[in-house]
Amino acid sequence: MRVFVTGGTGFTGGHLVQRLVKDGHEVGVLARRTSNTESLKKLGVEIITGDITDRDLVTKAVSGFDMVYHIAAMYREGGGIAEKPFWDVNVDGTKNMLEASINANVGRFIHCSTAGVHGHVSNPPADENHPYNPGDIYQKTKIEGEKLALDYFAKGLPGVVVRPVGIYGPGDLRFLKLFKSIQTGNFVMIGDGKVLYHLTYIDDLVEGFMLCGKKDNALGQTYIIAGDRYTSLNELVETIASSLGVKKPKIHFPFFWPVWTASLLCEAVCYPLRINPPIFRRRVDIFRKDRAFDISKARKELGYEPKVGLGEGIKKTADWYKKEGHIS
């Protein structure tokens, strides 16, 4: 098949492209002019230069493709300095992709949302029917993009919504700060560490994407794709420490709300100056918000089964960080 991928130069999209090529598909990737596309070119991938916010370009680019994986999104660690780019990419850009796919008679549209649309899970684990509970502009706009996709699917575009959970693995840098702080012993546990956390190894996520692209019963559905189990933050930190060959950090600050207030003040000072704050609510919320999910639906309807356990995945990620010189 001819498969069109947005976000193919990123961590998740890049791994998906590799799998698609490996499986014999002809792949086209939409990439911005500033993106590094060298690894994709080596795979023989067709590079279409442009941006999903350019409606006319997207309409032309999607023409002739059989399937679309829409992975691209505006994501910024600090929660963003300006909100407009999030709406431009995560909502308007998604609409452009959906319209272009209808015009091109695309056979299937896989929309990558996020389990973050559920925000804090008040009664874990959450399944696909858990209410929306966004905590920041990224999650708010991802909800709107997901709603758009579901609306287009209801009107006839064959498609599936995927909500990935805590993506990690070799090639990812979002968890690097956490690994570094644990390795150096500088990690500070805020609160009791009993909050729940859930991760998904990149290869398992890609397998989930592929199943959503094949299974006829997946059309019109939404699936949470995650690892085989969730864990406490205490256990996660201990697992990372073990993979790095260091002792679990012992620095502990039992009071959450003073830290959260400090992060709010940092945002208030830094955002008007158009700089990302050193601490921010989204990062601090890891110590407060439960993020645990039920993947029964994906298991039952897709035959999805995670193959990489938490310990193995963390070790592979730590080894990659060391190999690349990110940590010693």
UniProtKB/TrEMBL annotation:
SUPFAM superfamilies: NAD(P)-binding Rossmann-fold domains. This is Nucleoside-diphosphate-sugar epimerase. PANTHER family: BIFUNCTIONAL POLYMYXIN RESISTANCE PROTEIN ARNA (PTHR43245). Residues 3-225 form the NAD-dependent epimerase/dehydratase domain. It comes from Candidatus Methanoperedens nitratireducens. Coiled coil: none annotated. It holds the Pfam family Epimerase.
